Amino acid sequence: MKKTIRISEKLWSRIEEDGKFGEKASDVLDRLIERLDRLENRSLLKHDIPEPVKIKNEFMPQKAMMPLLLNALFKAPNYRLTAVQARKKVSEQFELRTGDKEILKSGQIRWENAVHWAREKLRKENLILPTEESGRGIWQLSSAGIKGAENAK
């Protein structure tokens, strides 16, 4: 049986406005649900689990995420993806190990956190456009990033 959630017109307008570059309202809702799940995981982490387990060398290093993210954005239409889409495309390029699934003290999953740090490092190297140019929640290659990805092929 399908469940129905009723929302006001005002809330629906906010959801549509939150979508960037033609993002469907359903994608915006998926992103919001993902955020709620993370918040729930954070509260579970604080109350039920004393300390995250440290697993050495059982996860993909942050540096290794950089070429995967460049590749994902290079293959995307207009060299741009939402953050959610980018993480999904990166995760399809490697096999998650035990440590990659570890929940950090921040409440984030290790591999997702590594993808975000890879994005930040690529942005500092001017290979990805800053948020002011690409839009909130959108990751897009700069012209230097496109050239770098072409040369890497």
Could you describe the 3D structure shown?
The structure is a single chain. This protein has helices at residues 9-18, 25-48, 62-75, 83-91, 110-124, 131-134, 143-152; strands at 80-82, 138-140. It has 7 helices and 2 strands. Helix 3 (62-75) packs across helix 5, helix 3 (62-75) packs across helix 7 (143-152) and helix 4 crosses helix 5. The protein has a single domain, classed as Arc Repressor Mutant, subunit A, CATH 1.10.10.10. Mean pLDDT is 80; it is low at 43-55. It has a two-stranded antiparallel ribbon with strand order 1-2. With 153 residues, the chain is mainly alpha-helical.
- Taking the alpha carbons of the first and last residues, their distance comes to 48 Å
Strand order of the largest sheet: 1-2
Structure classification:
mainly alpha
Architecture, CATH level 2? Answer: Orthogonal Bundle
Report the CATH topology name.
Answer: Arc Repressor Mutant, subunit A
Shape: globular
Whole-number tally of structural domains: 1
What is the number of helical segments per DSSP (H or I, 4+ residues)?
A: 7
- Assigned CATH superfamily: Winged helix-like DNA-binding domain superfamily/Winged helix DNA-binding domain
Q: Secondary-structure element order, as H and E?
A: HHHEHHHEH
Sequence stretches where pLDDT stays below 50 over 5 or more residues: 43-55
Major sheet attributes: 2 strands, antiparallel
- What share of the residues does DSSP label as strand, in percent? under 5%
CATH class: Mainly Alpha
Task: State Rg.
Answer: 17 Å
Helix content: 55-70%
How many β-strand runs? 2
Mean pLDDT: 80
